[in-house]
């Protein structure tokens, strides 16, 4: 790890900036000097940009022309551990360093937290002349009154230049003040008593407490069915970490889960922690960034990007529901939050806890290889057990066309209604119907921008593309043949299931829980809380409900189509289906009442369906591991996806073919290249995507070979190359 060093005024230093350049830039230390890690503002062409002092200058350029750093920002310097983390993460994901620095210093809507900010407010004066841009600035101040912005943020929000704001300040129409300092978060008290733990919980907690107090790195898989008390156990590790004076981070896969978790933190530690995710205001996120850096935040609860916050002393990272696919960032810098948590933990000397009812095969493999420790909670906390699981063989059920709730499932729901208990009908498909088909010509309405079909959403009264988000109204006539009144909704979505449920159970209160039905995370949270208290009889939901929400009155889960995830050629399909089905089933019977899960399937003898029903997790993983090992794919081999995108599909294919031929550096490490083939998402927002898959042995130096290989293919025009290490689908 590089040493901290002080540079006297005028000394040559190298600076990493947020601008997408492929090298560090040399500057002169400013008056008063600077140290490695200092956040600085540097001149770059006509602009001023954010950077971090990285080390000695290289002196490769004309020394006379090297410019001084404008100023050292007020934030605490970036620690050597954080710099090492960014470098290693960049190497692992093959991401340029400036992009890593952007991850560490901002998130959408947040300016540069290291900069001192000002507060602007409507002043007493009036501008000599009211122009359109000036009016917009004043409007923004009215709308966001009380929030603090940097000059640039304010100008950006008003869609104008900083000169306009400065002009208004000069005329007294806008007042500029130094912002008040951010305030630390209320102190969490690790000494407050937690719950009395069950024996298996206590045994696991003791191990984790010892780990957290050791000040050393270790990763532990914490496994136990939903409701077995994992959260309670890892909160004990958080307590030990806080008691040792270090900071803790808990990652959750879904913002909607935060509310319930915050309540538990407050109950356990007497105060609320810091929150970091897209649902948090800019002001609050900036406060979080600064307080994490200064030590005024002991515990952060957040989304994957919280891994890139500047912790002063990180002692524990918990990745809850570690198997969740949303931990893989699929846009911009492509990283797996689980892998990054382990990397950061190793660098910081922190404990990492991977908690899940259905751990990923990657985690299992690391336990097997002796890299991770394993703790298992064997029973559900209290009386409740894993629900009784049964298949409904759909080949033996009579159902009219366009209906999906079998008579058997219907009877089970009716029994729950009589007892005043809740049922969940699970279908992992948003919207009303996945396909809109013209009965006259057979045309299926597709997205204009992608290769995806448009999904009808009756609630929104529009067709929506689930790939790129494009929407259009449902047409009267078929866009292909022009015949009117022949468009038909084909297949079920949750909205349609709700319609069917309403017909079958006319007296029940039916509720659809799907991410697109709620305008904000807050609205969703509120609704989930109300449902948990009994404000619905039948919940119709997508995978949103599978993720850890606690519905105490829920005793029946009906899976509408258990076969859905098993179609397709993805090697991870079995793993995903297994995890999702076990997770969904675990929603039933989380209190004293025993739950039941019914899976509608056309292939009850399928090995994955059987494993789901019997709950033979280890057997399932052994079979799955054997298959992956034989195929040489992760976690027993290494893979990378290289996605080439362009407006012109031929250009993307041509480059792909050229790259596949020039695979020398890859061949040297024994890797194979497959493709080019259309990427899993073959066209999005008008850009065609072509993918090459690279497969190598576990021990091969894949990243180094990949960068050598990619160097041979400079991209031109609108072609873009992105590298996805450990792609989600292969
Ligand atoms: P998991 O994280 O494994 O799903 P939780 O920790 O959320 O499990 O526990 C499930 C439920 O049981 C929660 O409502 C929790 O408050 C309760 N619970 C867990 N452990 C205890 C305990 N030792 N004493 C009392 N209640 C507990
Ligand atoms: Zn689309």
UniProtKB/TrEMBL annotation:
Q: Which family does it belong to?
A: Belongs to the helicase family. PriA subfamily.
Q: Which organism is it from?
A: Palleronia aestuarii
Cofactor(s) listed in the protein's UniProt record? Zn(2+)
Residues that hold Zn(2+) 2 according to the record: 447, 450, 465, 468
Organism classification? Bacteria, Pseudomonadati, Pseudomonadota, Alphaproteobacteria, Rhodobacterales
Q: Please state the gene responsible for encoding this protein.
A: priA
Give one Pfam hit by family name.
Answer: PriA_C
Concerning InterPro entries, the annotation shows:
DEAD/DEAH_box_helicase_dom, Helicase_ATP-bd, Helicase_C-like, P-loop_NTPase, PriA, PriA_3primeBD, PriA_3primeBD_sf, PriA_C
Q: What is this protein called?
A: Replication restart protein PriA
Protein role = Initiates the restart of stalled replication forks, which reloads the replicative helicase on sites other than the origin of replication. Recognizes and binds to abandoned replication forks and remodels them to uncover a helicase loading site. Promotes assembly of the primosome at these replication forks.
| Reaction(s) catalysed by this chain's protein | ATP + H2O = ADP + phosphate + H(+); Couples ATP hydrolysis with the unwinding of duplex DNA by translocating in the 3'-5' direction
EC number(s) on file = 5.6.2.4
Q: How is the cofactor bound?
A: Binds 2 zinc ions per subunit.
Q: Where would I find the Helicase ATP-binding domain in this sequence? A: 211-377
Q: Where does Zn(2+) 1 bind?
A: 438, 441, 478, 481
The EC category is isomerase
Quote the subunit structure annotation.
Component of the replication restart primosome.
Q: Which domain of life is it from?
A: Bacteria
**Which SMART domains does this one have?**
DEXDc, HELICc
